[in-house]
Amino acid sequence: MIPSARGDALSAIWLTLQDAAERRTAFTAMQLATIGATAAPQIRTIILRRFDQSAGALFFISDRRAPKVRDILKNPNVALAGYDPGSNTQLRMEGRASVVDDEAARRDVWALLRPPTRKMFDAPLAPGTPMEAGLESGHLAAAAWSRMARMSAAA
Ligand SMILES: Cc1cc2nc3c(=O)[nH]c(=O)nc-3n(C[C@H](O)[C@H](O)[C@H](O)COP(=O)(O)O)c2cc1C
């Protein structure tokens, strides 16, 4: 690809990611791959919450009990993919992820979440727990924000 064409393509990707973080597009729900505890790849859907072009970073939120958070703490190498059937475009990225541990930053994100999203963090069982283990359990109104991990993946 000639340099200007490459620049144009990159600009289009940055715009696409910005758009996906600001409103719901085909790229808002992405697939995040981590390297699991047994070194087998693990992949799951995750919502893009923020894109910082200058840092080349994408931000996501998760429950810090989630296996993906453990994976990232052990091995920060991640990959992301998204697909827009409308334009038949696939985006694939590789990067290094980290968990944003700053409590003030976590509280800021918590304040922005809508009630249905907050409710997901009230689950007494960790995300990824097999369903039969959770069927008998109710919800706990715990200080759920403290379990919220804000992750960034620098592409
Ligand atoms: C549409 C959709 C959006 C999701 N968004 C998130 C998200 O933003 N953050 C998150 O931690 N899990 C999200 N999940 C749940 C994950 O895909 C996954 O099932 C759960 O977090 C456990 O993942 P883990 O065991 O790999 O950590 C979403 C699932 C779906 C179907």
Helix fraction, binned, reads 25-40%
Enumerate the spans where pLDDT stays under 50 for 5 or more consecutive residues. 136-142
Mean pLDDT across every amino acid position = 87
Strand order of the largest sheet: 2-1-5-6-7-4-3
Coarse shape: globular
Tally of DSSP helical segments? 5
Tell me the count of domains. 1
H and E order: HEEEEHEEHHHE
The overall strand count is 7
In what range is the share of β-strand residues? 25-35%
The description of the largest β-sheet is: 7 strands, antiparallel
Rg (CA only): 17 Å
Q: Under CATH, the topology is which?
A: Pnp Oxidase, Chain A
What is the CATH class name?
Mainly Beta
Distance from N terminus to C terminus (CA atoms, Å) equals: 20 Å
Class inferred from helices and paired strands? alpha+beta
CATH superfamily: Electron Transport, Fmn-binding Protein, Chain A
Quick overview of this protein structure:
Keywords: Flavoprotein, FMN, Oxidoreductase. With 155 residues, the protein is α+β, with helices and mostly antiparallel strands.
